[in-house]
């Protein structure tokens, strides 16, 4: 076990953990007062410079307005959150760039939740559509019971027409195919963990997409971790909540978070850390959970959640393990998802694989893919989503490889949609190298 | 396995990038750890070296004025050669995208406040706007951009005595945006040459803009715009406008968000990537481990977990008061990571001058270094044998008043990076 | 001389503006002169509390009764200046029970609605209150914008024919045959709206009567007339927080003491205050300990204040007065009552009356009393209407309108604009042109800035007090120059530049009291923007000597005149001193 796991001192006097404590202003309504968070803002506008939506959509006034400015201008009794908060895609790039640690995405999430609660008509097409998109897992669970039929139906023109005209879901995109065997079905079939360990234990948060759509990513994670001697467990879980935050469905998110926290927090005492293969899932468990909800064990879950490769880089000699490996020659155009950027993970795949024999890897730059989860699925946002993605598509075309790589399932949809490339997850390459 | 490199640089702005590149050039394996985006995003993108030594100026030759600076000024410590080396490295990194290397003389570049300011390197995009160029000038502004009024800028330039004729025109941008559209929206429309409806037909945004400006040309030889002419494809945008308009086009650097700054950030990132510098971004360095006077590691807070990053040599380039490399409270000023010595008056009412542009002690706050940029303690001894500092975290100069901030970042960055690399 | 008596009111604070309005409404010919902007003296330097009277309910019940009465009047006539926040008198464990009971009893005696809340109830209203509070009394305190109120009074006076002359300092009181017959003023520019770089002038303004409503400065005017008005100016500090930690006025419930009130004011909270007698209302120390005292003491009541960001501090001077011979030593014990000094009765000098003492909440009542007195001099018995007729902006005022659609503004911006403009919102915001936000911190649009410029000339501080532009967390770093841009083309470049410099320096003056933590970073950023990026501090246009442009880089192929090396004698290109104004 490496010394990296036990830094000298857990307490952290030097972190600028901007010391305001949001309080529940309206105890019955579950709303938070984030006005003091505006204290950190010195108006430098770096957040606006990083906002991929504001640069293609002038209806969106940018993260500074929607964050510290709107909050600072608010009085307790005000309820009229500006409707443009719904144009934010929750990419969280503003969080990543703000030199002054303004809790921007927390402000946006909270304001969006308030807007949906107070201002959005619950029978409106937009609300219904957003609710469906936000609860992808429910749809996926049904769909994956009869994957072939569902894939067939979803591919039908008439289904797409219905989705677009009635629900407001764009017909431009192909629905992700459901796997014929989900990750969990595979897991059960193989009989769960193949490695047992007292001191190397991880609990895998696979999220919805690896379970229903790309079980090969989940399988890669299991095999890689087992190769390093970890005992992997896969607790029962719900959606991480990411698409719900983005659509202001905080109640749905809280329910899902409740189940996830309950099922994972208990394992921590037994020496398990939590790993995720999706960077939005790890983001959600690490940051958004404790920011938005007050649940027993949520801080524990947050403090013990890692993205899978991040975990291995900290705890194992990953470079050493790959030093003598090689994989069949392949060039990759790598895109760092916004939520990976936010966790400081945007360079790890490039830095690891550029040393790996057989791999050519090129970072296609810091732009946003534009899909931002459910954002790019909305009929009215589709074009903006593609405009945002344009820079990434262009860079992918310029890059040597014709295979893309990213950690985020929806970024991967967008990359495929915009370039036609096959897209792989870093864990799949890692698995290949370790095999 | 611990994360380990030869040289670890804390901070990803101009100074940190230059330090990392210098260390890499010396053959070291380098990691750059940065938390949030640097002040480049709201700086002008101009590389000022020295324009107003000791309050006098503007001076045309920054090197001639060096000897008049106090002994504890970062330039006095780093020396003239370090400034030149820093500029050389900068020129290498930015290749054709910056100008000014053909002469030691400062250039006078128009500012969005309507003044001109002395600078040593300026983006190619601003090259046609130099104030020592006698060609007549039109300055264009857009009605919904409140930061910039082209008519005021042109009158102000006249008041500054510029040796050319200048006019200003405030126009409506040809594409109708909401009044509060961000400048990034303008730049993006030009960058992608978005198709828009203009004069009854569908044309690219660049052509439409040129057509909007054309009637106002009236024989001028160059046209200046606020710096929003594209982002990634800024060169193409400018070239297209020039070919439509038939005159040189240039940008006047703006306040935040600053496209020249963003473009420089991209250039630095590409250079770091090419040089094989590892970059860990998004998480703060919050603590360190030392063995006697040797730093062993810094601790990076990865969302509530401290992860040690080991190295043999460390460079602190975390910025000044704005970049949060220097912090303060009601009673004191501190460097938050290493608690390095930051000299400052104990009474906070002695931190400022009562004139807004007076001689502000706070502008000079920062750590103390020796001529190899080693961070010194209050007894003038190195705090650690292997800790250096560069950029705005280094005290002793009012870079804003002197117009020397970028030059100080380059000079201290080069020395700190080179010395760190050489110690491996 | 016409039949209508001409009255000169000296002092453009709340009292002076109130008097000017009252007299003008009663048909008198009124000229108001003020040496600075409206509110320049004490009015612009207070915490904006609309008293319920609760603060005086124990010590000064007469004042308390006046307060609750005027509180109700102002809610009617100045709706767009008032926010009815409610107020709490909060008891901490070491605050005496007796006093709490006396306070409650006093409120009831004075007709101030008062309700006792448990600690839980109080913290439900204000969650940031300290956890150890014992209980609280809830009273109808409110917040009022003194700038807006004063400007509205002056605007109303103007509508009734008054002449309003800010930036007109009285340099002499004109006496003829032992009688006051007018004043002499020095206009900074003008007369009329202030325009920078317009030469000043002096003017003798003859009047049938002069009202000295200069508050803490009343002694100085008195001296010019040869009478003694012994005002006892007392300073108090106020510290402005960046955000509203409380939405209710929070008072400490204890007998007396410094730093015992937090007033939510627009986007901010104002902490107050101290009470210390000063010699000269224009020259007194502004000290660190006073700011520290506000934060340290009030954070006992609202702990988050300890770490919260303050954006500036300012000091105000109370115009305290007590009749000769009273001999109170502690200024906190001097009565808050007002005194009408008729210099004919008192000093045998006909033609002038001074009004001193008093407090902001009762300004209208004071104005009524003195207007009655003035009218009496001329045998006019027109009734006062200021308690019934709404101020401009407060007629049929309602914020429940869809400003989004009407004005194309996003909701918090539209909401704040309409709150500031009241019933003038239509007239100001419907311009039919792009209306971008100029001050982002306070959500002030171009239309509102332009409207204020229309009212007050090139004086950007006057624009500031009308709109709140540059009063937010960046303290003007990001909007002072934008405000100056709006002066063009009505005013030329040198005027806009001078106006900008003046506003920028004014903002700095108060911000220096908040220079640590975020606000020091903000100050450094502002400095970098204005010095590094704009080079406003080294502006060749503001320098004495000319710049030798030829000595600088003229581009590739256009070498600087000193040749390839560029090693010229630095002094050859020396354009003068950077800080030209020194």
Characteristics of this structure?
heterotrimer; A: 435 residues; alpha/beta; 4-stranded parallel sheet; 48% helix; disordered N terminus; B: 424 residues; 7-stranded mixed sheet; globular
Oligomer: heterotrimer
Q: Please outline the major beta sheet of chain A.
A: 4 strands, parallel
> Spans of chain B of 5+ residues with little confidence (pLDDT < 50)?
none
Query: Number of DSSP helices of chain B?
Result: 10
Distance between the termini of chain A: 22 Å
Number of helices of chain A: 22
For the report, how would you describe the main beta sheet of chain B?
7 strands, mixed
Outline of chain B? globular
Q: Topology as H/E string of chain B?
A: EHEHHEEEEEHEHEEHEHEHEEEEEEEHH
Q: Tell me the Rg of chain B in angstroms.
A: 23 Å
Describe the structure.
The complex is a heterotrimer of chains A (435), B (424) and C (582). Chain A is an alpha/beta fold. Helix content of chain A is 48%, strand content 10%. Chain A is built from 22 helices and 10 strands. In chain A, the strands form 3 sheets. Chain A has a 4-stranded parallel sheet with strand order 4-3-5-6, sandwiched between helices. In chain A, strands 8-7-9-10 form a 4-stranded parallel sheet, with helices on both faces. In chain A, helix 21 links the parallel strand 9 (403-405) and strand 10 (422-424). In chain A, helix 9 (183-190) crosses helix 11 (215-227), helix 11 (215-227) crosses helix 22 (426-434) and helix 20 (382-398) packs across helix 21. Chain B has 10 helices and 19 strands. Chain B starts with a strand and ends with a helix. Chain C contains 17 helices and 23 strands. The model of chain C is unreliable at 562-582 (pLDDT under 50). In chain C, the strands form 5 sheets. In chain C, strands 5, 6, 7, 14, 15, 16, 17, 18 and 19 form a 9-stranded mixed sheet that branches. A 6-stranded mixed sheet of chain C has the order 9-2-1-13-21-20, sandwiched between helices. A 3-stranded antiparallel sheet of chain C has the order 3-8-4. By secondary structure, chain C is of the alpha+beta class. In chain C, strand 10 (168-176) and strand 11 (179-187) form a beta hairpin. Chains in contact: A-B, A-C, B-C. The interface between B and C is large, with 90 and 87 residues.
